[in-house]
Design a protein that fits this description.
Layout lengths: L17 E4 L8 E8 L4 E4 L4 E6 L13 E6 L2 E2 L3 E5 L2 E3 L1 E11 L5 E11 L7
Antiparallel strand pairs: 1-2, 1-7, 2-3, 3-6, 4-5, 7-8, 9-10
Length: 126
């Protein structure tokens, strides 16, 4: 069974990665990924695709209500419009299986494999 049959899509970009925008009005901008929206193939990048939201004054229990007005916040951008930055340059993402030693609860160890992301340009682990 693949990830797609379960309804969950696998994206090469994760929260906390530094990405560069390669298309759209913010082309060339770099920022850190705040969140990944897997269901819609989108990411929210810090300082990129800023939009103004008009918020209503909510009076809920005195001071607890938020003040209304116009706030500027980041909107989602499609994952195809960003590229991962590894080191000082952008790169595509590849995957490699690496052998690791794992420990069981009883203290014994065994060897297993895990998948790691690698830079397609340099071959280094991301």
């Amino acid at each position: 069974m693949t990830d797609h049959s379960k309804g969950k899509k696998s994206l090469n970009i994760k929260k906390g990665d530094t990405v560069k925008v390669i298309a759209g009005k913010d082309k060339g901008a770099e920022g850190k990924v705040i969140s990944v929206l897997r269901d819609s193939d989108r990411v929210i990048v810090e300082g990129v695709n800023l939009v103004k939201r008009h918020t209503k004054v909510l009076q809920q229990g005195g001071r607890a209500g938020n003040t209304g007005g116009i706030i500027t916040q980041e909107a989602a951008i499609h994952v195809s419009n960003v590229m991962l930055v590894a080191g000082k340059d952008t790169t595509r993402v590849g995957f490699k299986r690496v052998g690791v030693e794992k420990r069981r609860p009883d203290g014994s160890t065994y060897s297993a494999e895990r998948s790691v992301r690698v830079s397609r340009k340099t071959g280094e682990e991301i």
